[in-house]
Specification:
One of its GO terms (biological process) is lysine biosynthetic process via aminoadipic acid. It comes from Caballeronia arationis. This is Phosphopantetheinyl transferase. Keywords: Transferase. The structure is a single chain. The protein is an alpha+beta fold. It has a single domain, classed as 4'-phosphopantetheinyl transferase domain (Ribosomal Protein L22, Chain A, Alpha-Beta Complex). It contains 6 helices and 10 strands, in the order ββααββαβββαααβββ. A hairpin with a 2-residue loop joins strand 5 (about 105-110) and strand 6 (about 115-120). The chain is globular, with a radius of gyration of 18 Å. The N and C termini lie far apart (about 35 Å).
Length: about 230
């Protein structure tokens, strides 16, 4: 069973940005007939997963994405032409073939039993949701994920707050890099999410604003958009 609903935007978000959360039931067998709007390529990819829950997660999020884009574009969900752009980022076919900034951009993320979809007109957008692992030792990836200032900020917190703070930074960084269109290994430690929201995040010549999103218990989520 899959359901989705629109999320209220934080007050700092631009009006042309829209967000949806997907809630999934993953303890059932995968049946591709439940996702009639998927393309042949998407069905093949769903069947390639070894675990049923992974196939369900991919198929459910992609089917909801098609439904949302169908409402935005006026097309039938099955007729929405999706391709994989840089770093396997899904894109509308006509937008990916254009050298111009796409008039409609979107991004998806899923973790555990939940997913997020962000759609924006006239700007780049990225979104991330992560299921937080209790007791996760954030120091094991601090060198590749955190700037020195972010690491110092987390270290100053009490032990109980450190994991939550790390995940908040992680989802903000991942959403920002996805909005920028680069991979997660492309310098996460070289920029910082700290500072006032108005200052935003600069990556090269690109500039992004971010917002922390309300997430289900045990999850962290963030959205980023180009300025």
């Amino acid at each position: 069973m899959t359901s989705f609903h629109s999320l209220p935007l934080p007050s700092c978000c631009p009006p042309e940005l829209s967000l949806w959360r997907i809630d999934m039931t993953l303890n059932v067998p995968f049946d591709e007939s439940n996702f009639p709007s998927l393309s042949d390529t998407e069905r093949l990819r769903a069947r390639s997963f070894h675990r049923s829950e992974d196939a369900l997660r991919f198929a459910a999020v992609r089917a909801v994405l098609r439904e949302i884009l169908a409402k935005v574009t006026g097309m039938a969900a099955a007729d929405v032409a999706l391709v994989e752009a840089q770093n396997r980022r899904p894109a509308l076919r006509h937008a990916s073939e254009s050298a111009q900034e796409p008039p409609l951009d979107f991004n998806v993320s899923h973790s555990g039993a939940h997913g997020l979809i962000a759609v924006a007109s006239g700007r780049r957008v990225g979104v991330d949701i992560e299921q937080c692992i209790a007791g996760f030792d954030w120091r094991t990836i601090a060198d590749i994920a955190l700037s020195p200032g972010e690491r110092a900020h987390i270290e100053r917190l009490g032990r109980a707050a450190q994991t939550a703070a790390f995940y908040d930074i992680w989802v903000t960084k991942e959403a920002t890099l996805k909005a920028h269109g680069v991979g997660l290994t492309d310098g996460m430690q070289h920029f910082s999410t700290l500072g006032t929201p108005r200052e935003g995040i600069a990556i090269g010549d690109a500039f992004f604003q971010t917002a922390t999103l309300a997430a289900p218990p045990g999850y962290a989520a963030s959205v980023a958009w180009s300025v």
